[in-house]
Write a structure and sequence with these properties.
alpha/beta, five-stranded parallel beta sheet, 8 helices
């Protein structure tokens, strides 16, 4: 079992650009992808669009095809990532998920579900924050006759016409689901905390163009600007803001607090006779393979600016890893380059021992 410099876990946008940078540095690396490149995007809701325009959905070195001010579909994003991997001939082992990882004598020992055994000086977790959809404990109060879906729902055609549908979660995904079902179902959207809904475009330009110009997106996560953004928690959702959803006939409720049989209670009322509940309340990390102490807590992977408590184990692709842009594709370059610098310094130090 030969020793390699870096194992990258996950071939999403962060993992692919990380591979490109490691390749440019001449490091011996391997990317492990439990599915196939782009499958996470292929599995997103049919017809869903990203809320950043194509110019902000591309990785360094390869232009995203199509009209640059337009908003791409999730299928376009999947195809783009596959093209990126092929264009730069990145070293990726697909359908190879990690079963376990331990550290012995300063070396990471990795076992995959397809029988591969690896030893590596460093490991970079690039799986991203959106892994396993959350189903809250509140779901236990619902009747077994209520059909429940998570945000991994792939097509709205799975929902019967005229169903009384509750969508829980008012992020971009929940709002697109509610708006998409409004024409043929009786839809209620349960909202969380107070947030703002800026338009996708301002004066004919993607709002992220203006935010980038104003240097808001890359402000340090501890800055005053970042604290303001966290407090307001804005979601650019186009026509699916509150006014737009109401115009489509969607009923808006506050935070869901309890469920009993087919009745659901909110801070500001209740909904009787619910047929379908779609949970769009976020995701949790899949950390079953990581058994190294202190690197995982109740929120998932523990990291500080990409550095975990375990020497040689790094993380990229996290919300607010360094700034607001960290959870967006346009923030990949900044965060990956920062973590690559840490990895390169660590490997040089170990080789000199």
């Amino acid at each position: 079992m030969s020793l390699i410099d870096v194992v990258v876990v996950g071939a999403g946008q962060n993992g692919l650009f990380m591979a490109k940078r490691l390749q440019e540095l001449g490091l011996n690396y391997l990317v492990l992808e439990r599915d196939v490149v782009g499958q996470v995007w292929d599995n997103r809701l049919e017809g869903m669009k990203l809320f950043t325009s194509r110019q902000f959905c591309q990785l360094p070195g390869l232009v995203f095809p199509g009209e640059q001010w337009g908003f791409p579909s999730v299928i376009e994003m999947a195809e783009y990532l596959r093209c990126y991997a092929a264009t730069f001939k990145l070293n990726i082992r697909q359908q190879s998920g990690i079963v376990s990882m331990e550290k012995v004598d300063g070396i990471f020992l990795i076992k995959t579900d397809d029988g591969l055994l690896l030893s590596a000086r460093t490991v970079i977790n690039a799986t991203g924050a959106n892994q396993s959809p959350l189903i809250p404990k509140l779901a236990d109060g619902l009747s077994k006759s209520v059909i429940q879906h998570s945000s991994s729902l792939t097509s709205l055609t799975e929902i019967n016409c005229n169903a009384r549908v509750l969508v829980v979660g008012d992020g971009a995904t929940g709002r697109q689901i509610a708006g998409g079902l409004a024409s043929r179902c009786k839809v209620t959207l349960s909202q969380g905390g107070k947030r703002t809904f800026p338009p996708n475009e301002v004066l004919g330009r993607d709002i992220f163009w203006w935010l980038k110009l104003a240097k808001v997106l890359f402000a340090d996560r501890e800055s005053k600007v970042a604290r303001m953004l966290k407090k307001r928690n804005p979601v650019p959702c186009g026509e699916f803001n509150n006014a737009g959803l109401r115009a489509l006939g969607v009923s808006l409720k506050g935070r869901m607090v309890r469920a009993a049989d087919r009745r659901v209670y909110f801070h500001d009322g209740r909904l009787d006779g619910v047929d379908v509940v779609i949970w769009a309340v976020g995701y949790r990390d899949n950390t079953d393979w990581l058994t190294i102490p202190e690197c995982v807590d109740g929120q998932g992977f523990v990291q500080e600016h990409g550095r975990s408590p375990e020497p040689g184990l790094f993380v990229v692709g996290r919300k607010w890893l360094s700034c607001r842009a960290s959870e967006l594709i346009l923030g990949v370059e900044k965060d990956v380059n920062s973590v690559v610098a840490l990895v390169e310094a660590f490997i040089k130090q170990r080789r000199s021992l």
